[in-house]
Task: inverse folding
């Protein structure tokens, strides 16, 4: 069964501009056209769009998603290749590093509140300012 652009977009929960953008980016295959020039998509396009949106919610960029989709299309047997596993490990490491950075940032901000910092320039000028970062490395 073929679906028109609006049907695909509605079923996947995206707007038409998003659908076309993903086509231009190569995330979706170019659809066939009717004699009247209307785009028609296979039902699989809805699954692909949902997959793209799910991957975005997990923090993958469109470039990373394009690589994952390309990797999946080139696999001949289930479980072949490690594209998703490797990418997920890398994304998890990235997220955990960001969490560590944010934890440090939150601690610094709490220290600034506890120190009663009301004016940035005044606070930074004091030797025990919690906002001054050690840049000596």
Result:
């Amino acid at each position: 069964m073929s679906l028109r652009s609006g049907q695909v977009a509605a079923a996947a929960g995206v707007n038409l501009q998003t659908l076309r953008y993903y086509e231009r980016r190569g995330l979706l295959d170019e659809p066939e056209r009717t004699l009247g020039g209307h785009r028609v998509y296979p039902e699989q396009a809805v699954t692909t769009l949902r997959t793209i949106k799910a991957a975005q919610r997990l923090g993958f960029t469109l470039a990373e998603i394009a690589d994952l989709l390309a990797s999946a299309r080139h696999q001949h047997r289930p479980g072949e290749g490690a594209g998703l596993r490797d990418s997920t490990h890398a994304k998890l490491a990235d997220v955990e590093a960001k969490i560590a950075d944010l934890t440090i940032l939150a601690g610094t901000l709490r220290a600034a509140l506890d120190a009663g910092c009301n004016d940035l320039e005044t606070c930074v000028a004091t030797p025990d300012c919690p906002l001054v970062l050690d840049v000596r490395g």
